[in-house]
Amino acid sequence: MKKIISLVLAFAMVAAIGALSGCGSSYDGEINVYNFGEYIDESTYEAFEEEYNIKVNYNTYDTCEALYSTLKNGGADYDVIITSDYMIGRMAVEGMLEELNYDNIPNFSLIGDEYKGLSYDPDDKYSVPYMWGTVGLIYNGSEINDELTSWSAMFDEQYSGQILMFDSSRDAFGVALKYLGYSMNTTDEAEIGAAYDLLEQQKPLVQGYFQDQMYDKLEGGEALIGAYYAGDYLMMLENNPDLKFVVPDEGSNFFVDAMCIPAGCENKELAEQFINYMTSTDVCVTNMGATGYASGNTEACEIYAQDLEDWMADIMFPSEEVLSRCEVYLNLPQETLELYDSLWVELKA
Questions:
Q1: Which pLDDT band, with edges at 50, 70 and 90, does 170 fall under?
Q2: Which residues contact 57 (CB under 8 A, 6 or more apart)?
Q3: What residues contact residue 4 under an 8 Å CB cut-off, 6+ apart?
Q4: The overall pTM is greater than 0.85
Q5: Tell me, which fold does domain 2-132+254-321 have in CATH?
Q6: Cβ contacts of residue 300 below 8 Å, gap of 6+?
Q7: Does the structure show a pLDDT above 70 at 131?
Q8: Which of 157, 222, 238, 288 stands 20 to 30 A from 17 (CA)?
Q9: What is the mean pLDDT of residues 161-170?
Q10: Residues 209-259: tens digit of each pLDDT
Q11: Where are the domains of the chain?
């Protein structure tokens, strides 16, 4: 897999540099970008810096809730943020995002229709899709002989002390809700309460609650099983080929992460230029190789998929049958969000 990805990366960056050569811009200054950890090929924004003489100040966060808190409390001044669907919906409702001028983002035409007009941004006012993927079970196949197909493994006493759980209320409750047969977007307090009870029963079994650290722990064999992202799984395989991935029978989360501009951005036109650049086919191919996630740019996906083995393609570009069992997180009513917050604090206490 590493060889395939390296070849694709090499091709993509040569093409990207060639495509950018000869372009000019009157922009001069800095842009502040906020993204999930391990979710970009750094060479892409370095090429942007060189071509446009714009400094990219790149920072990362670990959960959507952390991003929200940072922006809500005025703790940072960002021009471009990359975050998940449900958080985009929440921030849009709360007036925390700028409407985009698509005259400055012509590469939006390269985004597949299936990633446009989604529930979190039905009129595509605030966001341009970046990457998408699924959440599933990642487990060590050399230690676990059974082929896992259910979320029940996350609550199984035989794996006590070897289970890693999301350090995110929405994701942790999402796993519990799907296992119980409920929607990840339920607002029913009884169903959410049942999920809380299950998570409380699970608590003595978990090694801990993690986000970015889960990558290193699973890759390094420090735990046997965890709920995590398909793209990260493909990257983990380079150092730990014993790992396996499955979207459980009960279903899971299908997510779309997208690029947005926070309200009050003083470099909006430049931010839109950066979004347009990040949406170009060559840059998307490069980022797919570095992250293991699928781009919203369908042309980039077609190029990248040409060099993938079938089993990798099945994970990166899951079938309609798999996606039919998955849900996109929706922005929940304020009272439900407050319930999540209070239960999460209680669970983690």
A1: very high
A2: 30, 31, 32, 33
A3: 307, 308, 309, 312
A4: yes
A5: D-Maltodextrin-Binding Protein; domain 2 (3.40.190)
A6: 110, 281, 282, 284, 285, 288
A7: yes
A8: 238
A9: 96
A10: 999 899 999 999 999 999 999 999 999 999 999 999 999 999 999 999 999
A11: 2-132+254-321, 134-253+324-348
Q: Where are the beta strands (DSSP E) in 161-287?
A: 163-166, 206-210, 225-229, 243-246, 252-260
Assigned token pair, 196:
């809380």
Q: What is the mean pLDDT of residues 3-20?
A: 41
Cα–Cα dist 13/289, whole Å: 11
Query: In this structure, how many other beta carbons lie within 10 angstroms of the beta carbon of residue 67?
Result: 24
Query: Does 19 have pLDDT greater than 90?
Result: no
Question: Which residue, among 282, 308, 307, 284, has the nearest Cα to 294 in the 3D structure?
Answer: 284
- pLDDT for residue 29: 85
> Which is nearest to 81 in space by CA: 40, 113, 27?
40
Mean pLDDT of 285-302: 97
Q: Is the dihedral of CA 210, 211, 212, 215 positive or negative?
A: positive
| pLDDT score of 154 | 98
Band of the pLDDT at 45, cuts 50, 70, 90? very high
Q: Token digits for 297?
A: 């740019």
Q: Is 38 exposed, middle or buried (0-12, 13-18, 19+ CB in 10 A)?
A: middle
What is the spatial distance between Cα 321 and Cα 344, in angstroms, rounded to a whole number?
32
Residues 6+ apart with CB under 8 A from 237: 1, 243
Q: Is 27 helix (H, G, I), strand (E, B) or coil?
A: coil
Contact yes or no for 276/105 (Cβ under 8 A): yes
Q: What is the pLDDT of residue 63?
A: 92
Same CATH topology for 2-132+254-321 and 134-253+324-348: the answer is yes
Other CB atoms within 10 Å distance of the CB of residue 35: 21
CA dist., res. 221 & res. 242, Å (int): 9
Q: In DSSP terms, which residues pair with 227 in a beta bridge?
A: 137
Q: What is the pLDDT of residue 26?
A: 47
* 165 within 8 A of 226, measured Cβ to Cβ: yes
Residue-level length of the chain:
349
